## 1
Amino acid sequence: MIVFDLDDTLYKEFTYVDSGIRAVAADAEEAGIMPASKAYDLVKNAPDTASGFDRLAAIALESETYELFDIQRMLAVYRYHIPEITLPLESRQLLDSLKTAGITLGLITDGRSLSQRAKIRTLELDTYIPSENILISGEIGSDKHWPTAYELMMKRNPSEKSFTYIGDNPDKDFYWPNKLGWKTVMLRDTDCVNIHPQRLSEIPGSQYEAQYTIDSLSDLLDIPGVRCDD
Ligand SMILES: [Mg+2]
């Protein structure tokens, strides 16, 4: 079976971040802080999103609005907004062909339940991946620094002969599946836009590296034994 990471593997996470900033900016306008377009520019022009939210909170504090517009409110809006993100054509084509080929699919992703569920729903990934094979750290209580999710996937799919994990983050995506005998594949961040930069020189050892590296999701099917069990 083939198990995917979500963020920066099946779609680019910066599009989610941008969508979240738009939601916060719209909320700033609603709270009477400033027009949404101005709030959006303010956050986007900050060195990073967190400091952009800090700037917005500081302005809100000085404004004469009676509504509380603080970091907590911004984070809640950001985390629970309905994201405006799309599944890239390449991802859709790959998932379509895997589904047609009858290959069992899974998803292991780290994050809050509500945020990850909103992404999964918007990207319609639940049309490709059975619900019992969608594992979210916020729901199972364990992230990819632990073997739990990978072990659970194996337990739930006992008839599968091989497991492949495809992700983007060498800090945590491949260590445990490597140890558990999975095939591991890293999708290279060819445009250098990933939220977690791929710093292979900084990882502690080769056990953190994926066995295969691809530049494009469509290359996944060229890896020996991924399409068919060997
Ligand atoms: Mg990722």
Note: The mean pLDDT is 94.
## 2
Amino acid sequence: MIRLQGIGKDFGNFSAVKELSLEIPEGQTCVMVGPSGCGKTTTMRIINRLIEPTRGTVYINGEDFKKEKVENLRRNIGYVIQEVGLFPHRTIAENIATTPRLTGWEEEKIKQRVDELLELVELDPGENRDKFPRQLSGGQRQRVGLARAMAADPPVMLMDEPFAAVDPITREHLQNMFLRLQRRMKKTIVFVTHDINEAIKMGDQIAILQEGELIQCDTPEELLARPRNKFVADFIGVDRAIKILDLFSAGEVVGTRAPVLKMENFQEQVEQLQQKGKNNIPVIVESGSGEKFWFNLEELKDRVSLEEIIRPLPITLEPTSSIKVALARMLEHNNEAVLVQGEGEEPGLLTLGWVRHYVHRICSTTPGEEEGI
Ligand SMILES: Nc1ncnc2c1ncn2[C@@H]1O[C@H](COP(=O)(O)OP(=O)(O)OP(=O)(O)O)[C@@H](O)[C@H]1O
Ligand SMILES: [Mg+2]
């Protein structure tokens, strides 16, 4: 666990970080975002004791970081610095081996660890270990920077724009790779980015900084639902309702399964459902020959025949798909619903109306709106 307690840094008369307090629980990722010059790198450098704070202190696992020897502290913190910063005259293997060597590991153990890390960041060890940084692409160098920071398996990682300066596809690949690793490693991470989408994807919590001050620190869901002020709302963008779509899975939004009615006596079953207070819910109707169609329960009320409103079942999505994917598939197929069904599960129907209702409920009554955002 990392706790920043009122830390600040002045350079002459200028306060790069004014007074910042923040707590990052063990195994979680806190993403710091904010405009250029708002103090993100300065905060990272304070945590790693590359610079001394003018005010405040940092607690790592409850211990004041000043009580620890700087070398020990740094060994427990992997630092991916902005612009990668590999040593140009050292090979990839030597770069990655930096901390293990300082720590005095045996050569054989170092060699094994280097190869293991190269595999972990998806670089072929045989092909890459003896190369120099200039012989790699930007994205490959960023992977080496990450491997170097992870080399001695530190419990804490500071990652300063680790995936910047690569194309969007490589960036997404690196993000996914790191998320997979983090699920296993459960490190405590401070991650800096300029990209709010990256922050939403990578962060358990997001800290928004402006001119050396913390403006809001919340989970991505909370931040998108309730931006504290206009600065945060502007930073997130006007499309926050669309960004929210990425955060919820179709499975969790569908909630209940769709009732399946038999076509022969559908009216009786419609009445039963309505007596139970169900009205505007999607239902599936199965014909005698096993064909399935979907309707809104309301449409079936007092109907004798279904023929003129018949709608075949829409495409099926995994419950883990995001509601953004669900919406995209509805638009693509000119349909108002998708079927959500995991293996061996009863089907659920996610409708356009329900997505609209769900997102609106999350976005509504925010303090931002009251302020006229
Ligand atoms: N050693 C220094 N001496 C004087 N001013 C500094 C020093 N280091 C940083 N600053 C100033 O402190 C402010 C914060 O810098 P910092 O590097 O923390 O910004 P940042 O949020 O990381 O920005 P970016 O997104 O561009 O990386 C900037 O205005 C910078 O010019
Ligand atoms: Mg910076």
Note: The longest strand covers residues 14-24.
## 3
Amino acid sequence: MRLESYQVKENNQLKHDGISYEVLAEKYGTPLYIFDETNFVQQVKKYKKALDNPYFETQILFASKALLTRAIGQLIAQLGIGQDVVSAGEIYTAIESGVEPSKLYFHGNNKLDDELIFAIENNVGTIVIDNRSEAKRLNAILTTQAKRQRVLLRLNPGVEAHTHEYIKTAHNDSKFGESVFDLTIKEVIETLANYPTLDFAGFHCHIGSQVFEEQSFLDSATEMIAFAKMIEDNLAINIKEINFGGGFGVYYTEEDQPFDLETFLPKFVQHVYNKTQEFDLKLEKVTIEPGRSLVNAMGSTLYRIGDLKTTTSGKNYLFVDGGMTDNIRPALYQAKYEALITNKAEETADTIYTIAGKACESGDKIINDYPLPKAETGDLLLVNGTGAYNYTMASHYNRIPKPAMIHILNGVDRLTVKRESFADMMRNEL
Ligand SMILES: Cc1ncc(COP(=O)(O)O)c(C=O)c1O
């Protein structure tokens, strides 16, 4: 397993910022989500600085879907960045945690009327309209409330990216946004911009996730700016902001080679500026929405190893006390991870194990055929790179309570999410 900067091996033990994982397991139990707050804060500050420029205002909007708890919301509030939210629940959590509502961008392809009302009543800064039908509904709601709302429109710029490949296409079947190639797109934008209730500020796009090609972000920026200029010229509408979405790839295993965001962001800003100059577009604000790239490497999950089994075909299973209920990604889309036995950190990885969870599903595996030192019941297994889309996707399948979460800041650990009890799981059941 590739170690993070906060992990060190010492006397055959792996430690997180000086704290042994055994101590954490004793203190908080397992499975346990561990989040490195020190590096998270430093990284957000670095990225904010990397976006600084003399041309336009920039803002990082943390994509809540990657990881949102009260403690994370409080950090977002302290760091003064904005947040991408996709449900009333995420809006509620952000505001309860102290995030300024004006810094929230509300996304979603089917925002319910109740959610739109909730967003308006709570002064959410920007609603990112997904489609023409939503624009109509939002206008109707705002009319009855005699209110005006700042909005962006989500577009598909025809650049679709996923991991190492990206394509330019006029055909897309995504459930998100309106296509720039739709023959009626100008009418859609004109109608939206003419609603007296909507303060139409510009566009949003998000080209995919785990994207490793810098060029795909640069190309989508070019397409968006060219399109924005065409709209300005044709419809005499001022485009003030473009939100370029998230999707910056991160390291899970050796197969992933992410680019360095801190060096890419100044290049991206310069590219956006050059294109706005070329197309004569006066953007006031540029926003990006990183989720995974801000939190994934800060998170890891600690498990206690239970039974071990070798099948008649010779497959070695190593069972942990969590699994798909705390990390659904391998079962959902064959996501890959790396792991280490923290109390055998310096021993040779000479045995191949399939690390499986305790849920009643054959697909409940975290890593297939992975080399580890010879494992024993009671050892501690750490899986790195679980900061994003693990806690937020956790379930109660098999009535397994959700794990606790701790943050580690400058070598000090603190509980941020309590381990669920059985009673917690039954709380709303009559
Ligand atoms: C609209 C939007 N913005 C931002 C993100 C964050 O993506 P990532 O976590 O890959 O950076 C997503 C992820 O699905 C998204 O749909």
Note: The longest strand covers residues 299-310.
